[in-house]
C-alpha cells in the first residue's frame, strides 16, 4: 500500500522563524530551520527567499558556514556608516541597513580613534569594523558598543541630517539638532534649495573629499527654527513619524456609509457620558452605570462601556487601513497630535460628541458588589452621548462643587459611576496590581505665542481612576470573549521582570537598607510592599523609578503570557481604536467571533497576528520616543533664559561619564559631566548606582538630593547641562564609602576628572 503524500505544514511567518533562531543556542542553518517547521522540498525555496529578505533587512546576520544568527545583538564584525561627531570629538556610527524608523532603538557605537598616520573618520564614510559591547554602558535600554576600524569601504552614505541652516562668510552651514553631533556640514549655493538662514532643514551628505567639513545638499525645508512649533517638528521628523495622509484615505471617508440601526442595538436612551482631559479633541469611549435589578446579585452593577465603531469606517485592506497600520498609533505632543486616522474620522465621525448619533461597539458588563465580573456580552449599537465632561469637572462635582453642566448629571449619572468604580477599585486592590507613584509633567503652552508658559505636575484624580477601571474591565471582557469563541487575538502582554533586572534592583535596594528577597519579586504585591516601606523615605522617587526600570516592556502578541503589572491572566486593548491599531484589530476580531457584521477580521490578518503585533509594538515605542524627545526640547526652551540659575534636584541616573539630574521644579533632566565634578578619580560602582572618589571617598548615588547650576539649555538639541552649585561641591550625595571595592562586588569603571 503506497504512502499518501505528506500534507505540507503551514509556512512559518518571519516572526516565527526569527523566534526560532533567537531561541537556538547557536547559529543555525537553513536545513535545521526547515526541519523544525516540517517544511517540504517545495517549501524550502520560499524559506530561502524569506531568509534572504530577513538578512537584507538587517534582522539576521550570516556567519561562518553560511549559518544564521539573530541580529538583535551586533556581530563581532560589521559594516558601519559614520553618522556624527560629538562635542568631545567622539565618532558615532550606525550599522548599515538599519534605522530607527520602525521604533527599534539602535545601539550606540563609538569608534576608537584612527591610528597614527590615518585621517580621522568623517560623516558619510563607511567602514568595516570590529565591535565590542561595553557591558556596563547601558542607559534606558540602549546598548553601547566600541568600534575599531578594520578598513574603510566605498559606498558610504548618503547620510541624512536634520539641522539648522545658517549663512556665514564662507557659505552655508548646517548645525545638527542631535546634541551628540557637533560637526557641521557645508552647503554650496546650488545645493541650498532656497533655504533661508535660521530654517530647519533636512540635508543629505554628499560624497567627495574626506578632508575638512563634509558637503551636503538641502532636500527638505521645514520652517523657521525659532518658531515654537519647531520643537515638536524636530521630534516628529527625527522619529520618522508619517504626517501626511494619502488622498485615497480622504476619498474613502467621503464615501463612508452612514450608520443606521440595521444590525445595531439602540443605545440612545442609555445615559452615556464621555470623561476626558480638558484638551482632548477625540472622544472614543463613553460610560454608564446603574444598579443591577437582579435579586441574585444584591449590590451589583450593570456597566455599559461604549467605544467608537472605527471598524465601520476603516475597512480591512483599504487605504485608511493601510495608513493606520503604517502609523500604528497616534502620537501626542504639547502643541499637536500626529493622529493614526485623519481628523475627519478621529475628531468628527468617530468622536462620541454630545447629542449626536454615533455608531459604537459596546460591552454590557455585570459586576457584583465586590467588583467581580459575573457576565458580559458585546453588541454593535447606535449611541448618543449625554455630555462631554472633563476629569476636573467630574471630580469637582464629586467633591460638592458641581458646575452648571455636571450638576444635573450628579445623581442620575455620576453617582452610580462612582459607586461602581469603588467596587472595581476594591477588586483591583485584592488582585494586587503594581502601584507606582511617579509624577507626570504637564507642559502648558501660551495659546497666543506657542511658548511654554508653565510646567506643572499633572493631577491624578479619582475621576481618572474611574475611567481607568472601566476601561480595564472592558479590555478584560474583550479578551475573555474572544477566548471563549476560540478566536485568535492580539493580547496586551506584560512579562515578569527578567532575573538580571531583579538582581540589579535588589542590589540597589540593599544599598539604601531595603531588602527584596530572592524568592520574591515575581508578583506585583512584593514590589508594592517595598513601595509602602519607601513612602516616607527621601529616596521614594528613586525607588519608584528603579522599580519601573526593572519592569519588562509591554507589547502586543497573539501568544498570551498575561499582564504582570495589572496582575491579570488575560488582557487586550479594546477601548481606543481611534488612536491604537491594536484596538481596531480586537474590534474586528469581536465582530467576526460574535457575528456582528461582515467587516470582521479577515483570514489573512488572523495568520499575520504575530507580524502585526510586532509592528505596532515598534510604532508604539517610536511614538513614545518622539513624545519624550519633544517634551525634553520644550523643557529646555523653558529653561533657556535661566542659564546660571541654581536649582534643587536629585540624581536620577549614574553612568561612567557623569550624573543625570532631575530638577524638582520642572522635572527637567540634564547631565553633570564627570569632568566637571570636584577633582578626584571617580569609580563607577554599577551595582550601587554611584560614583565614588578614590581619594576623598566623596560619593554621588542615585536618588540623592543635589543642588545644581544650569550651564546650558538648548531646545534645538534638547541639550541640558548642569554643574554642581558651589555650595554643594563639598557635600556627600550618598553613603560615604571608604573603600569602593568593599561597597559593591559589582563591576567598577574608573574615570578621572579631565
Description:
The chain is an alpha+beta fold and 754 residues long. 28% of the residues lie in helices and 27% in strands. It has 18 helices and 34 strands. The longest helix has 31 residues. The N terminus and C terminus are likely disordered.
Keywords for this structure?
754 residues; alpha+beta; five-stranded mixed barrel; disordered N terminus
Structural class estimated from helices and strands: alpha+beta
- The largest beta-sheet arranges its strands as 3-4-5-7-6
Strand content: 25-35%
- Oligomeric state of the chains present here: single chain
Number of continuous helical runs: 18
Mean pLDDT: 85
Topology record:
Blueprint: H1 14-23, H2 30-36, H3 41-56, E1 60-62, E2 68-70, E3 77-85, E4 91-95, E5 108-111, E6 126-133, E7 144-153, E8 160-168, E9 171-176, E10 185-187, E11 199-205, E12 214-224, H4 230-239, H5 247-254, E13 265-266, E14 274-276, E15 285-291, E16 301-308, H6 310-313, H7 319-327, E17 331-333, E18 336-338, H8 343-349, E19 357-367, E20 373-384, E21 388-390, H9 391-398, H10 410-431, E22 441-445, E23 452-457, H11 462-484, E24 491-493, H12 499-511, H13 524-534, H14 540-550, E25 555-557, H15 581-594, H16 603-607, H17 609-639, E26 646-655, E27 658-663, E28 669-673, E29 681-685, E30 690-693, E31 699-701, E32 705-714, E33 719-724, H18 740-743, E34 748-752
Amino acid at each position: 500500500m503506497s504512502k499518501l503524500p505528506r500534507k505540507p505544514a503551514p509556512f512559518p511567518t518571519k516572526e516565527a522563524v526569527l523566534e526560532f533562531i533567537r531561541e537556538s543556542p547557536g547559529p543555525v542553518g537553513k536545513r535545521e530551520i526547515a526541519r523544525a517547521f516540517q517544511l517540504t522540498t517545495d517549501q524550502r525555496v520560499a524559506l530561502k527567499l524569506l531568509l534572504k529578505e530577513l538578512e537584507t533587512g538587517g534582522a539576521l546576520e550570516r556567519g561562518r558556514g553560511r549559518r544564521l544568527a539573530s541580529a538583535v545583538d551586533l556581530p563581532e564584525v560589521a559594516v558601519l556608516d559614520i553618522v556624527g561627531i560629538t562635542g568631545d570629538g567622539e565618532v558615532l556610527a550606525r550599522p548599515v541597513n538599519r534605522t530607527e524608523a520602525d521604533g527599534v532603538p539602535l545601539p550606540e557605537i563609538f569608534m576608537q580613534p584612527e591610528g597614527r598616520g590615518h585621517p580621522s573618520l568623517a560623516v558619510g564614510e563607511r567602514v568595516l569594523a570590529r565591535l565590542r559591547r561595553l557591558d556596563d554602558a547601558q542607559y534606558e535600554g540602549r546598548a553601547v558598543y566600541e568600534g575599531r576600524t578594520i578598513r574603510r569601504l566605498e559606498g558610504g552614505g548618503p547620510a541624512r541630517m536634520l539641522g539648522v541652516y545658517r549663512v556665514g562668510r564662507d557659505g552655508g552651514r548646517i548645525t545638527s539638532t542631535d546634541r551628540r553631533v557637533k560637526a557641521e556640514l557645508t552647503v554650496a549655493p546650488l545645493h541650498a534649495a532656497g533655504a533661508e538662514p535660521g530654517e530647519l532643514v533636512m540635508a543629505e551628505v554628499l560624497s567627495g573629499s574626506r578632508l575638512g567639513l563634509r558637503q551636503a545638499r538641502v532636500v527638505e525645508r521645514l520652517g523657521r527654527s525659532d518658531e515654537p512649533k519647531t520643537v515638536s517638528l524636530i521630534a516628529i521628523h527625527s522619529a520618522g513619524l508619517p504626517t501626511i495622509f494619502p488622498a485615497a484615505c480622504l476619498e474613502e471617508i467621503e464615501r463612508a456609509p452612514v450608520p443606521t440601526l440595521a444590525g445595531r442595538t439602540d443605545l440612545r436612551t442609555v445615559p452615556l457620558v464621555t470623561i476626558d482631559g480638558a484638551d482632548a479633541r477625540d472622544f472614543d469611549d463613553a460610560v454608564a452605570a446603574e444598579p443591577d435589578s437582579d435579586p441574585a446579585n444584591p449590590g451589583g452593577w450593570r456597566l455599559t462601556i461604549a467605544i467608537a465603531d472605527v471598524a465601520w469606517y476603516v475597512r480591512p485592506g483599504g487605504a485608511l487601513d493601510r495608513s493606520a497600520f503604517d502609523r500604528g498609533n497616534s502620537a501626542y505632543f504639547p502643541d499637536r497630535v500626529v493622529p493614526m486616522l485623519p481628523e475627519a474620522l478621529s475628531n468628527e465621525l468617530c468622536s462620541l460628541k454630545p447629542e449626536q448619533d454615533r455608531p459604537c461597539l459596546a460591552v454590557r458588563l455585570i459586576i457584583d458588589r465586590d467588583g467581580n465580573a459575573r457576565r458580559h456580552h458585546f453588541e454593535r449599537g447606535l449611541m448618543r452621548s449625554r455630555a462631554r465632561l472633563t476629569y476636573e469637572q467630574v471630580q469637582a462635582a464629586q467633591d460638592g462643587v458641581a458646575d452648571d453642566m455636571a450638576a444635573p448629571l450628579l445623581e442620575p449619572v455620576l453617582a452610580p459611576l462612582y459607586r461602581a468604580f469603588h467596587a472595581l477599585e476594591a477588586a483591583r486592590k485584592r488582585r494586587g496590581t503594581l502601584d507606582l507613584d511617579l509624577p507626570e509633567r504637564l507642559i502648558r503652552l501660551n495659546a497666543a505665542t506657542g511658548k511654554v508658559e508653565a510646567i506643572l505636575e499633572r493631577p491624578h484624580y479619582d475621576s481618572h481612576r474611574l475611567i481607568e477601571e472601566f476601561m480595564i474591565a472592558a479590555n478584560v471582557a474583550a479578551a475573555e470573549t474572544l477566548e471563549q469563541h476560540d478566536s485568535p487575538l492580539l493580547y496586551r502582554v506584560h512579562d515578569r521582570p527578567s532575573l538580571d533586572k531583579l538582581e540589579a534592583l535588589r542590589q540597589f535596594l540593599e544599598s539604601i537598607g531595603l531588602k527584596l528577597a530572592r524568592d520574591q519579586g515575581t508578583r506585583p504585591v512584593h514590589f508594592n510592599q517595598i513601595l509602602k516601606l519607601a513612602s516616607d523615605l527621601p529616596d521614594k522617587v528613586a525607588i519608584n523609578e528603579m522599580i519601573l526600570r526593572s519592569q519588562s516592556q509591554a507589547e502586543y502578541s497573539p501568544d498570551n503570557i498575561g499582564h504582570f503589572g495589572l496582575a491579570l491572566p488575560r488582557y487586550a486593548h479594546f477601548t481606543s481604536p481611534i488612536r491604537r491599531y491594536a484596538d481596531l484589530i480586537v474590534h474586528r476580531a469581536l465582530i467576526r467571533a460574535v457575528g456582528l457584521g461582515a467587516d470582521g477580521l479577515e483570514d489573512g490578518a488572523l495568520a499575520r497576528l504575530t507580524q502585526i503585533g510586532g509592528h505596532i509594538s515598534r510604532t508604539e515605542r517610536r511614538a513614545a520616543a518622539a513624545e519624550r524627545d519633544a517634551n525634553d526640547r520644550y523643557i529646555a526652551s523653558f529653561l533657556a533664559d535661566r542659564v546660571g540659575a541654581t536649582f534643587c534636584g536629585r540624581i536620577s541616573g549614574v553612568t561612567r561619564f557623569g550624573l543625570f539630574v532631575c530638577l524638582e521644579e520642572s522635572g527637567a533632566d540634564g547631565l553633570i559631566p564627570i569632568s566637571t565634578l570636584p577633582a578626584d578619580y571617580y569609580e563607577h560602582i554599577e551595582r550601587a548606582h554611584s560614583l565614588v572618589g578614590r581619594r576623598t571617598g566623596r560619593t554621588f548615588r542615585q536618588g540623592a538630593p543635589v543642588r545644581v547650576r544650569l550651564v546650558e539649555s538648548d531646545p534645538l538639541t534638547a541639550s541640558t547641562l548642569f554643574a554642581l552649585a558651589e555650595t554643594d561641591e563639598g557635600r556627600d550625595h550618598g553613603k560615604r564609602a571608604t573603600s569602593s571595592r568593599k561597597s559593591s562586588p559589582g563591576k567598577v569603571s574608573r574615570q578621572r576628572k579631565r
